[in-house]
């Protein structure tokens, strides 16, 4: 497979102005008729051939201006159709046939539990019909869907329903029209036996919009939260960005088999059922919050993505980075803002940092790719969102909003680039963003080595920041970035933020210093007392900040920092210092001793009054094994696990009474609601329970049993079940697991959780359980959610996936090899943990390498090929 380069971009020679499609649905042989109005670009020579993408299509007829084309006039190969000579403007008619039932890749038109649905982003439309499948070709669409009246009573496509009727042979049709020009990746079609839940929304200018959620009959009771989230998102986008919905109808459909979380097709969003269905009995708090965020994300794409789209797929972060930033702000406004930031950053620093440090590291705007589906990454999405967040902070919210207005009005209906977006921000703010653009071009996580000195005699504090970005594949030399470091100085006597004076100018108690060079020293004057610096507040830039904090400094910040995010971070840093010692002790075979300063800090946390229980729960949670691993030069799987367990158990023993008190104080019989208050209360209670269960405290076991049996809500039930299954109390875990599995056998989303709980247990039998569960009737390799819940989850079970006999790696490779044939996109994603082989000890390196080689020896899809090839480079 050959890479595509950003530098090779050429505007389309022929554009489609209007697209008419007719689908005659059939599982084995769906006929797709296309009638496309083309126009040649005025600068393009008349001899330029017309190329249309098309894969896995059977062409049955082809005509231009009503004249069938002679076979010598065109060429078909595995990538598409070329017609040598075409007029400057013409109508092309084609008919192809496709087989939705055989489509296990879940790209293009496929069947999910008998229902038809589509996924066209990024390049799925070429599996539906011959078409210039690129985002810079935007056309209006008129789509007729013909289906069986009994099997497919519901026939949906983008836009507004304009006609429907009966046909012979128990068939019927519906015609849809989308007046907004769109690229074909936003095309969608759904057909099946679905039930609808309907609501309404009146926009800020009085447009009455019908909102519909389409689900299978058994899921009707799981739609309330998604509908409420949608309405909140619509209001938020009006109030925050001035963006109004632009059609009379907005539809969301839930499907079981889906590669991604959801898809923002114009007027007809298609969702993975896991990203839309919730019910207190079946979904956890985390799932409720995720659904809210994804519903909002896809809705926000209507402007940031659909009305203004990407010129080419290298610009993917233009829509994704901006839209993730928008959904993060929405969730922060709707829930606990500090917790949202803590959770996002915590995930980011674990998973995106790992990606940016591995062999698949790439810039937020990549400059080449083989398979674009491999670039729907944490870097493009989450680091892209961090860049937009920095932009927003650099120019200030008011200017950012004006820049966003300018962007949407200037480029409405167009396919544009990241420069177009940044230029709008520059124009409205006057801020020079030239150097800032490097954030889009340079891969790798920048690291800042900071050090500070307090000069008593002159009452000055000198802060020196030095930046470096490590080499990444294909990018050895890095230029300095423009890094905004938000910070404060906390007085060690007063425990208060000091008023800052920088270069003679008063800054307030919190300021942003701009690191632009390799190294800069910032001199703060009139610093009346020795301070501890609080750096990178709110995670103001996606970097690693190193500062030689002592444990006393960190304990001090943990209590006194005015920035909630940095208070949490101080706790994480403090725990990390203790963990580092314990990891070393484990490796050296020395007895482990708990650092009493950490215990004291946690005791103080538990004793301090708090109005945000969710924040406290986050503060009490130890860094995950994955995060700890990210901080180590070489990952020692066993030492990390042992050290972390030791800290957990030491804290549980030392603070047993406190944890029990917290648990009891946060019991509630309130009716379940996914409110920030209730969620905070449940998280706090459950964190306490986790600590207690780490020592298998008898009282805690009773709490767990009772909580499981009470069946108040899935958050509590799942947590209790997980703790039981992850403990050594099999005599209690087994019956609970069995009862749960039987009770929910009919519900695929709950069964996903049942799988995950079992394969993430730390006991040695986890791998055997995976193999066993792969034979379970509820499991299927063809369903991406099942693959993620069982195989993906097992690969996160660090001590078991990284077993020293290599059986975990071999299992993953077996699945990748099989999935490579069925669903290359999911197969390629699943390899990720193996690609990080260089981070481990020699034995594990060799074992992982061997599995990568084994995969590489197979006939591979371009998706899997690209990932494996990078991993072995
Ligand atoms: N559906 C995916 C998302 O919304 C890809 N656009 O991010
Ligand atoms: Zn998106």
Automatic annotation (TrEMBL):
Which UniProt keywords are present, listed alphabetically? Aminopeptidase, Hydrolase, Metal-binding, Metalloprotease, Protease, Zinc
Query: Would I find Zinc among this entry's keywords?
Result: yes
Instruction: Spell out the reaction equation it catalyses.
Output: Release of an N-terminal amino acid, Xaa-|-Yaa- from a peptide, amide or arylamide. Xaa is preferably Ala, but may be most amino acids including Pro (slow action). When a terminal hydrophobic residue is followed by a prolyl residue, the two may be released as an intact Xaa-Pro dipeptide
EC number(s) on record? 3.4.11.2
Question: Which CDD domains does the UniProt record give?
Answer: M1_APN
Give every Aminopeptidase N-like N-terminal domain span.
18-186
GO MF, one example:
alanyl aminopeptidase activity
Q: Which residues form the Peptidase M1 membrane alanine aminopeptidase domain?
A: 226-439
Q: Name one Pfam family in it.
A: Peptidase_M1
Domain (Peptidase M1 alanyl aminopeptidase C-terminal): residue spans on this chain: 552-873
Q: Does the keyword Glycoprotein apply?
A: no
Q: Give cofactor(s), names only.
A: Zn(2+)
Residue ranges constituting the Peptidase M1 alanyl aminopeptidase Ig-like fold domain according to the UniProt record:
444-546
Judging by the UniProt lineage, the source's domain of life is: Bacteria
Q: Which family does it belong to?
A: Belongs to the peptidase M1 family.
This protein's name: Aminopeptidase N
What organism does the UniProt record list as the source?
Vreelandella vilamensis
């Amino acid at each position: 497979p050959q890479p595509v380069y950003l530098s090779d971009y050429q505007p389309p020679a022929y554009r489609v102005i209007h697209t008419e499609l007719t689908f005659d649905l059939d599982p084995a042989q769906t006929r797709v008729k296309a009638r496309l109005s083309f126009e040649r670009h005025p600068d393009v020579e008349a001899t330029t051939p017309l190329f249309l993408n098309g894969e896995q299509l059977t062409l049955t007829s082809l005509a231009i201006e009503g004249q069938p084309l002679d076979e010598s006039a065109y060429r078909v190969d595995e990538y598409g159709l070329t017609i040598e000579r075409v007029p400057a403007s013409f109508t092309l008619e084609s008919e192809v046939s496709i087989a939705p039932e055989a489509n296990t890749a879940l790209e293009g038109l496929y069947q999910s539990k008998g229902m038809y649905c589509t996924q066209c982003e990024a390049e799925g439309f070429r599996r539906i019909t011959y078409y210039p499948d690129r985002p810079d070709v935007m056309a209006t669409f008129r789509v007729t869907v013909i289906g069986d009246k009994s099997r497919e009573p519901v026939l949906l496509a983008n836009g507004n329903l304009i006609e429907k009727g009966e046909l012979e042979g128990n068939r019927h049709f519906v015609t849809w029209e989308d007046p907004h020009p769109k690229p074909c990746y936003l095309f969608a079609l759904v057909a099946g036996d679905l039930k609808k839940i309907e609501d309404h929304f009146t926009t800020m200018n009085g447009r009455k919009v019908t909102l519909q959620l389409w689900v299978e009959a058994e899921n009707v009771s799981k739609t309330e939260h998604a509908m409420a989230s949608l309405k909140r998102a619509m209001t938020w986008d009006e109030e925050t960005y001035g963006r109004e919905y632009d059609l009379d109808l907005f539809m969301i459909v839930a499907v079981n088999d889906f590669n991604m979380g959801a898809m923002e097709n114009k007027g007809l969003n298609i969702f993975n059922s896991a990203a839309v269905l919730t019910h207190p009995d079946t979904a956890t708090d985390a799932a409720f919050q995720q659904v809210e965020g994804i519903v909002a994300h896809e809705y926000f794409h209507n402007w940031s993505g659909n009305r203004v789209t990407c010129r080419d797929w290298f610009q993917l972060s233009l829509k994704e980075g901006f839209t993730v930033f928008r959904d993060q702000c929405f969730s922060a406004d709707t829930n606990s803002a500090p917790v949202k930031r803590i959770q996002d950053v915590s995930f980011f620093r674990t998973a995106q940092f790992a990606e940016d440090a591995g062999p698949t590291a790439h810039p937020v705007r990549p400059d080449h790719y083989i398979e674009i589906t491999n670039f729907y990454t944490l870097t493009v999405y989450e680091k892209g969102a961090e860049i937009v967040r920095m932009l927003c902070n650099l120019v200030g919210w008011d200017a950012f909003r004006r820049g966003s207005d300018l962007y949407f009005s200037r480029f409405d209906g167009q396919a544009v680039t990241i420069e177009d977006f940044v230029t709008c921000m520059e124009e409205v703010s006057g801020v020079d963003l030239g150097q800032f653009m490097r954030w889009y071009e340079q891969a790798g996580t920048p690291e800042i080595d900071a050090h500070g000195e307090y000069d008593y005699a002159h009452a000055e504090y000198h802060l020196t920041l030095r930046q470096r970005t490590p080499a990444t594949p294909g990018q050895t030399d890095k230029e300095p970035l423009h890094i905004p470091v938000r910070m404060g100085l906390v007085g060690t006597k007063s425990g208060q933020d000091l008023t800052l004076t920088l270069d003679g100018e008063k800054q307030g108690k919190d300021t942003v210093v701009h690191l632009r060079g390799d190294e800069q020293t910032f001199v703060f004057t009139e610093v009346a007392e020795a301070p501890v610096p609080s750096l990178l507040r709110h995670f103001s830039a996606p970097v690693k900040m190193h500062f030689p904090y002592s444990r006393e400094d960190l304990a001090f910040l943990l209590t006194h920092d005015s920035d909630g995010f940095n208070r949490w971070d101080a706790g994480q840093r403090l725990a990390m210092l203790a963990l580092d010692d314990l990891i070393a002790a484990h490796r050296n075979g020395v007895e482990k001793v708990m650092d009493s300063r950490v215990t004291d800090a946690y005791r103080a946390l538990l004793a301090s009054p708090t109005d945000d229980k969710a924040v406290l729960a986050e503060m009490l949670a130890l860094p995950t094994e994955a995060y700890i691993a990210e901080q180590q030069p070489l990952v020692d799987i066993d030492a990390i696990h042992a050290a972390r367990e030791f800290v957990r158990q030491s804290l549980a023993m030392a603070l047993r009474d406190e944890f029990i008190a917290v648990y009891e104080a946060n019991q509630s019989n309130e009716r379940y609601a996914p409110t920030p208050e209730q969620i905070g209360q449940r998280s706090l209670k459950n964190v306490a329970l986790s600590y207690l269960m780490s020592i298998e405290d008898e009282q805690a076991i009773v709490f767990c049993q009772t909580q499981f049996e009470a069946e108040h809500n899935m958050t509590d039930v799942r947590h209790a079940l997980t703790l039981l299954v992850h403990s050594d109390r099999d005599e209690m875990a087994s019956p609970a697991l069995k009862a749960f599995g039987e009770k929910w056998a009919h519900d695929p989303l709950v069964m996903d959780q049942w799988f995950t709980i079992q394969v993430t247990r730390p006991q040695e039998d986890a791998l055997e359980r995976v193999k066993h569960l792969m034979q379970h009737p509820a499991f299927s390799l063809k369903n991406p959610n099942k693959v993620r819940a069982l195989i993906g989850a097992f690969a996160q079970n660090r001590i078991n996936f990284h077993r020293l006999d290599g059986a975990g790696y071999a299992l993953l490779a077996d699945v990748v090899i099989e999935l490579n044939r069925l669903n290359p996109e999911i197969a390629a994603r699943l390899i990720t943990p193996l690609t990080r082989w260089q981070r481990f000890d020699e034995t594990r390196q060799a074992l992982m390498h061997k599995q990568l080689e084994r995969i590489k020896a197979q006939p591979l899809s371009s998706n899997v090929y690209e990932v494996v090839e990078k991993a072995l480079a």
